[in-house]
Specification:
about 110 residues, mainly alpha, two-stranded parallel ribbon, globular
């Protein structure tokens, strides 16, 4: 998504036991410089040039996260679009309808 909440990219889904990191590495991401990419801890080594990676803080072994780290992780979690069992076509249609709605009546940019 961009700051105007337009969905810019939706990757294909993969069945079976393919790790998300392998899918991400094999997928061309058309993100412009200055974009932010919200990803989870399964993508620790994944980066894109000139793209800010937004990722939760991993809990240290044998320790706890600080209150600030825990709250920041909760904020990131609430921003994720995650629905299990949704078929690709339904997801694509939802994204297209969302983008159509945003074009008709733009929302305020995210800060």
């Amino acid at each position: 998504m961009n700051a105007l909440l337009t969905i810019l990219f939706l990757s294909d889904t993969y069945g079976g036991h393919t790790h998300d990191l392998r899918i991400a590495e094999a997928t061309p991401y058309p993100l412009p410089a200055g974009s932010g990419l919200l990803q989870d801890l399964g993508f620790l080594s994944f980066t894109l040039p000139e793209v800010e990676i937004l990722m939760p803080t991993k809990k240290p072994r044998g320790a706890e996260l600080t209150l600030e780290q825990d709250l920041a992780n909760q904020v990131l979690h609430q921003r994720r679009l995650r629905k299990e069992g949704v078929r690709d076509l339904v997801m694509e249609l939802c994204c297209a309808l969302h983008n159509f709605r945003v074009r008709l009546h733009p929302w305020l940019p995210m800060i």
